[in-house]
Amino acid sequence: MINLVEICDLKVEATTDSGRRVEIIKGVSLSIAEGEIVALIGESGSGKTTIALTLMGHARPGCRISGGSVSVAGKDLVALTEKQRAKVRGTEVAYVPQSAAAAFNPATTIMDQVIEVTRIHGLMSPDEARTRAVELFRALSLPEPETIGSRYPHQVSGGQLQRLAAAMALIGDPKLVIFDEPTTALDVTTQIEVLRAFKAVMKKGGIAGVYVSHDLAVVAQIADRIVVLKGGETQETGTTEEILNAAKHPYTRELLAAFEPKPRGTVSPEAARGSLLKIEDLVAGYGRRQADGLPLVRAVEHVSLKVEKGRNLGIIGESGCGKSTLARAIAGILPAAVGKIVFDGKELGRSARDRSRDQLREMQIVFQYADTALNPAKSIEDILDRPLVFYHGMDRKARSVRIDELLDMVRLPRNLRHRRPAELSGGQKQRVNFARALAAEPKLILCDEITSALDTVVAAAVIDLLKELQRELGLSYIFISHDLSVVEAICDEIVVMYGGRKVEEIMPAKLKAPQHPYSQLLFSSVPKLDPAWLDGLAQDPELVRAYCRR
Amino acid sequence: MTMTTSSTSTSPSRKSGTRSGYRFNIVGMIGLAIILFWALIAIFAPVIIPYPVGEIVDVDYFGPLSREFWFGSDYLGRDMFSRILMGARYTVGISLAAVTIACFSGVVLGMIAAVAGGWLDTLLSRFLDALNSIPGKLFGLVVVAAVGSSIPVLILTLSVIYIPGSYRFARALAVNINAMDFITVARIRGENTFYLIRSEILPNIAGPVLADLGLRFVFIVLLLSGLSFLGLGVQPPYADWGALVRENIGGLPFGAPAVMFPSLAIASLTISVNLLIDNLPQKIRDRSE
User: Fold this and answer.
1) Would you call B283 an interface residue with chain A, using a CB distance cutoff of 8 Å?
2) I need a labelling partner for A548 at 20 to 30 A (CA). Which of A286, A320, A409, B253 fits?
3) Rounded distance, CA B138 to CA B145, Å?
4) Do A362 and A315 have their domain in common?
């Protein structure tokens, strides 16, 4: 049988700033049979999205397909004219983007956008298309399939929007659907529902798929075969079983190892030397102050917690649960409305303005998005230089030495200091952020989702780095994340938050299982490296309905 | 402008000035050369003019190009070449001074408003909006008529007219930058407003602000010419380029060089300022270098 997709020795090149040409895909070959789902997995910059886009004959601006062939259903997309390619897109090959929220037009209803493909290609009458769309909505287990189409994109949740994007892709009856990290931006509990819907629809229709992701556990649930990519080259290809159980290539093993949670183990008792941070009954939020002195929207309600010296606290919860607001309130970025923050024995001002320079120095925060936290106009050297001048008043020579030390500490090469943030990778940027926090010589570092924007392998390396630094410098961390395995790997204590409240406090070292139903739901929703996990997963539907805004 | 950059970047042979690690394309260089040319003319005009500015030297008015009068003569028979050279002093000098004051104050106030926020932002914004609501020419007319026309008055009036626009522009850019995490990091480090605007915000808005400066320079040249056209700019017998166009406008039906050349001078200056601003030297940054 002839395969549906044949990619043969594909090469894509890009032109850099100074006119140099760089090959970003270096001769990749792969094939996809009818009805087969193939996952492309690898870190950012490995070329997985670039390859997926060539399946539609598309190369991003600045890039071009420089060699090889991409044939889908007998047509070589590289050789086709732009007009012929436009005909293929939407009817034979369809695309589900990473961010459905950005892919929908906020000004028109969902139904109009879903059936747009049929209008452009003249596939069926609008009424037929609408009936077909409703069928798809039902197949994707969307709530109220009859009427959801008349809503606008902002009136549905993120997980629903992602499924609607899939409906948009499927309405043209494509032979191949490209999923570009469709669940990366979703919460774990939502991700399950979306994955289930995708899997069911694809299997039922016998549609072939390309699933681009960096998350091996997600891919394991949906893909028949996995292609591991790195630096624009295929590292390993195999069925899901083979890759998961008998990975041959060292890079694949690294990916697998990064996924295995490494529990932190017990901390030596002498590490605990009294409390470092104590928060009592904190309330913080946004909007105008009400008559009772509380803000209109309260994102954090009456949360109390404690961090001991040299120990780590993890805060987990889904998006919108108030965990980031809590971090901002602790750091004084968003002054708390009510509550006491006691740091190192002294009560802190609620706003950063009311705190002394030393108090500010001792508590540093590292943000989720490494690139917006670094000034793009400054070199790494200048970025690390400032806290040294500001807090420690070092002279030029001492600063230069210290910057080298800091770069060593976060395992970055010293010659990186002359670069700008835009010239670094995501993991490197996050390390620079961390080095800047360390430059202040803090006692506590607030880590707000610092690994969420990073690839699995890179995130694991950052976590290892944090542990090592803690051993050397005796720091404490507050680690905020939605990713349970990350938190488990580094924290002595875990606080679960839901709807602005603290739901439960768990000590992983003592192996205390979560008691609260929400914690149980959250913990059970984390994908496992087992292809049968999703199908075998049984969650109490009552519980799901109560806690998930799907 | 983008066309030129992309064409130079794809063909390395045509790239100029890459040795220093900077890319400065040929269009930008031409712009810079013309600006430098006019700047030198402005400085050395009194030394090189062949005839005094106010003296009637030709027997005919709107005279053609000739060996004695390179650019012809004006409506009174004065030498246009001398008048244009001297006019450069006023046009280049006044506009440059005014645009510098306008953009400097506008950008500084804009950044302060964006960083400080709150009542200071509201106060500044509303005040400058109010100023903006007065039509520029009318404002210039009233001020110059009331105070009398002198070069400092012209410079100040022109800059006051263009401060609100510059402020709005800089504030809009700075508000976006101000929302970034690195500003939050600097704030909770305890940095003051001055450091925030100088080191964190300014380097990130410098590009668009310079482009705005180029545009604003052109507007100021045109407004100055307009004021001179109304007789409120530089006073006779001296004249800036705008005034030269105005006083010789009667020669337009005859195609007199007296009206063409000052117009060409205005065009060459304003266009080259924009060419330069759009093609400033860029440092080449490439990962592997």
Assistant:
1) no
2) A286
3) 10
4) yes
> Is A529 inside a domain boundary?
no
Q: Is residue B29 part of a domain?
A: yes
The verdict on A296 and A243 lying in the same domain is no
d(CA A38, CA A335): 49
**Which residues of A fall within a CB distance of 8 Å from B6?**
none
A494: domain CATH number is: 3.40.50.300
* Residue A415 is assigned to a structural domain of this protein: no
**Structure confidence by residue, pLDDT tens digits, A123-170:** 889 999 999 999 999 888 888 888 888 989 888 888 888 889 989 998
Q: Which helix H or strand E contains A176, and what residues bound it?
A: strand A176-180
Question: Rounded to the nearest 10 degrees, how much is the dihedral formed by the CA atoms of A534, A539, A541, A546?
Answer: -110
Considering the domain boundaries, does residue B183 fall inside one? yes
Q: Give the domain CATH number at B231.
A: 1.10.3720.10
pTM over 0.90, yes/no: no
* Residue ranges making up the domain that contains A128: 5-257
Min Cα distance A371 → chain B (Å) is 9
Tokens 């266009």 sit at which residue? B271
Predicted confidence (pLDDT) at residue B8 exceeds the cutoff of 60? no
Instruction: Please indicate, yes or no, if residue B266 is contained in any of the structural domains.
Output: yes
Residues A252 and A287 in one domain: no
CB-CB neighbours of A110 under 10 Å: 26
Residue A34 lies in a domain: yes
Contact A365 B185 (CB under 8 A): yes
A-interface mutation test, from B14, B24, B188, most A Cβ less than 10 A away: B188
Scanning A417-456 for CB atoms below 8 A from B yields 420, 422-423, 436, 440
Check: CB of residue B248 under 8 Å from CB of residue B256. yes
CB contact under 8 A, A378 and B203: yes
Are residue A447 and residue A341 in the same domain, yes or no?
Answer: yes
Cβ neighbours of A376 in B, within 8 Å = 204
By Cβ distance, the residue of B15, B185, B287 closest to A423 is B287
d(CA B275, CA B214): 9
Domain annotation covers residue B57: no
User: Pick from A208, A225, A257: which residue ends a domain?
Assistant: A257
Residue B182 to residue A372, Cβ atoms within 8 A:
yes
- Of A229, A257, A285, the position where a domain reaches its end is A257
- CA pseudo-torsion sign B159, B163, B164, B165: positive
CA atoms within 13 A on the CB side of A44: 14
| Same domain assignment for residues A188 and A290 | no
A440 to chain B: closest CA residue: B189
Binding-face residues of A in 126-145 toward B, CB within 8 A: none
Number of domains forming the structure of chain B:
1
A236 three-state secondary structure: strand
**What is the rounded (10 degree) CA torsion for B32, B94, B242, B65?**
-60
Say how far apart CA A2 and CA A72 lie, in whole Å.
Answer: 11
User: Are A236 and A363 in the same domain?
Assistant: no
> Would A428 be classed as within a structural domain?
no
B187 to chain A, closest Cα gap in Å: 8
Where b means 16+ CB within 10 Å and e means fewer, A232-243 reads bebbbbbebeeb
In chain B, positions 161-190, which contact chain A (CB-CB < 8 Å)? 180-182, 184-190
Give the number of domains in chain A.
2
Confidence class of residue A22 from pLDDT cuts 50, 70 and 90? confident
* Each residue's pLDDT tens digit, B21-50: 677 888 889 999 999 999 898 888 888 888
Query: What is d(CA A242, CA A510) in angstroms, rounded to the nearest whole number?
Result: 35
Task: Name the nearest CA neighbour of A42 among A216, A222, A273.
Answer: A216
Distances (CA, A) of A471 to A232, A310, A465, A466, B1: 37, 9, 10, 9, 55
- Portion of chain A with pLDDT greater than 90, in percent: 11
Domain that holds residue B164: 23-41+90-283
